[in-house]
């Protein structure tokens, strides 16, 4: 996986660019996830004929982990610098959880770059429930380290059905998450993104410019309650809404349903 130094930031970012299709999909990860978190999406997007760019956000994986706190706008600027350096041109933008917040910020700052927008398991603002949860994670990270935070987070990410019926897969995912390179300081810097994000006053702008928008959720999401994603959808004029099986981590737990929804939306927007 190549590294690219972006001197204007300055920042070094780890990325992968797969495929040779005429249209590019840019994928933005969630909190504490590196680019490997898209491993279940990459084959489906490539099979559908897309070129796919994924990368480690600032603060995780092999990308630089400078001091925080970070903001969604800051990470959107990182994404802009990366796609500019790689001469990607206009693209489809898919963001999951924190990545959905970064994607919103990107579409608001650089609307002419975005052909279509998928906002998955994300919100316009956290509200009191999520804010209390994130404050707890911050305290846990400082006092006990990231291992305990990940154990807690996983309980919110997957459905009870997944724990009951697919333990072997769960153990594999937990092991993969445990191998992600991230310091406590970098985790807290990323956590600030989801704690401070608020796009409510600008949602109407996301539906402009002729681009299509999909708000996509796992119908059993309890980490970012479906009601918050629904509020996001209601604020974006003309946006589509789709709920599929699974919880917050439905891109992993129900990858087939997630991939089908995303590919169908992207193809529809291209008139395919």
**H/E element order:** EEEHEHEHEHHHHHHEHEHH
Count of DSSP-assigned helices? 12
Residue stretches low in confidence (pLDDT < 50, at least 5 long) are: none
Percent of residues in beta strands: 15-25%
Q: Order of strands across the biggest sheet?
A: 1-2-4-3-5-6-7-8
SS class? alpha/beta
Helical content (DSSP H or I, runs of 4+): 40-55%
Query: Overall mean pLDDT score?
Result: 95
Shape, principal axes of CA atoms: globular
Q: What is the makeup of the main sheet? A: 8 strands, mixed
Please report the distance between the alpha carbons of the first and last residues: 31 Å
Give a verbal description of the structure.
The protein is of the alpha/beta class and 272 residues long. It is built from twelve helices and eight strands. It has helices at residues 42-47, 72-85, 98-109, 127-144, 146-157, 160-165, 167-178, 184-196, 203-206, 226-235, 250-253, 255-269; strands at 3-6, 11-18, 23-28, 50-55, 91-96, 114-120, 212-218, 240-244. The chain has an eight-stranded mixed β-sheet, sandwiched between helices. Helix 4 runs antiparallel to helix 5 and helix 4 (127-144) packs antiparallel against helix 8 (184-196). The model has no long low-confidence stretch (mean pLDDT 95).
